[in-house]
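User: Can you write out an input/output pair for a complex, sequences first and structure second?

Assistant: Here is one pair. Inputs:
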Amino acid sequence: MQSLKAGHLDASRWERRLQKELMSLMKEPPPGVEVDGDQAEQNLSLWTVHMKGAEGTLYEGESFQLQFKFSPKYPFDSPEVTFIGSNIPVHPHVYSNGHICLSILTDDWSPALSVQSVCLSIVSMLSSCKEKKRPPDNSFYVKTCNKNPKKTKWWYHDDSV
Amino acid sequence: MASILEIIFELINNMLQFFRLGKKSISNSLNIYIKSNTGSTLSIELDPKWDIKNVKEVIAPKLGLPPNEVKIIFAGKELDDSITIEECDLGEQSILHAVQSRSQSKRSRPLSESVANLQLSNISENDDSSSTIEEQLESSEEKGIKNTHFYVYCSQPCKSVRVGKLRVRCANCHSGALTVDSDPSCWDDVLKSNRITAHCEETRCETGPVSFAEFFFKCAEHTSQGEKDEAVPLYLIRPNISHVPCLACTDISDPVLVFSCEERHVTCLDCFRQYCVTRLRERQFVSDDRLGYTLPCPAGCENSLIEECHHFRLLTSEQYQMYQRFGAEEYVLKAGGVLCPQPGCGAGIIIDTDCKRVQCVGGCGVRSH
Ligand SMILES: [Zn+2]
Ligand SMILES: [Zn+2]
Ligand SMILES: [Zn+2]
Ligand SMILES: [Zn+2]
């Protein structure tokens, strides 16, 4: 039986959770999603996820890279998720610097979510897009925003887009 | 004449009893108080191996009653003759109630055994479960769960989170000489008043014999210090009977903390501490007018604020001090006060509108104008 006493706070608790998530993501990745396992194993707090635009969507044939940054407060604190690399998807919720306006990455984050559920949300966000364009405030935002997208007080765009 | 006869009768009885006690070797005796509904209290040594019939034979003469007219009540139940003391979950210096039987009520198992089902994680606030207590008990027996527990915060003398015991008394006269008409079937039955009717045997009880049961908890880990010795139930901590993984680390632990949200989200106790500390450092606790300084389910569910703030006693003592300090500061700020400007003091100042000078009360004593 687990002790009732507050012992040492297991410093690697968040790492154990990430280790488990990494294993399951490598074993059973969602379609079009692939995690760079070697990189993640070397540094559990920084992952790169490769994502393919789903067939039959505006992003078919394109590929993207997502970066996940985790803090020791994970999973009580959301990961910092941005698109990186040369191809940032052109989408009404994705800024040209890679920042994503998605409520589960800040306000609606829950420790019950995971890297996998974030990937699935982003896939479905891209798949439901009807017109490839940048957010209306893109140029202003990119010039003025904090490097960390979690510092942005997002005014969430209409989720039906 | 009659009184002399009575004295002789009692002498003989006592001798017989002594003889009987002498023959029974008491291996590891338990010191128990017997309280009668006429107001007298006896202190006796019992062998845990004895059954209730033996107990009646020992105490009946002391109460001046024939053994077959005595009923023994413990934790809301009249105990059956065949139950042994050790089955009753009695601690040293517990109180058994002996009353003269006026009517034959249904004898049964002690309460602590019969409400083991309260531990099941699927207990909902409005108890929509259709299975009976017996069914649930059987299923918990099948799963090999013998001693399911309640958890409490014991402020004296343990000052810590402990395993607890459920007990019951009359809501009107507070006597323990009470038999419940039904077992509590959900936490609301236990925590809210006037939900379970009971039969009070206390002769001086004004509403008796029909009354309501009032449930309370005792710490199971220190010797009972009398009837006022109670502990705060930490009802969100529950045995993990259905092996639900922790929301945060996904390990399956036991016991766990079950939040009051509709989804019944579960965290292990270590992750709960980590959650609290993370939110505490970022000052993200909720300052609720009714509940105090508290937190919701980590998944952010609606209606999930922790209502019993003693659950934060799961934190280490330094963490708990931080919780208390931040909570007090939040209170001062909400009340329109300011915090003492001396670094590290943090004591609250509520500015007196008539006087320009302010003084830090109870903190470092620094004065400013
Ligand atoms: Zn105690
Ligand atoms: Zn009463
Ligand atoms: Zn956990
Ligand atoms: Zn919840």
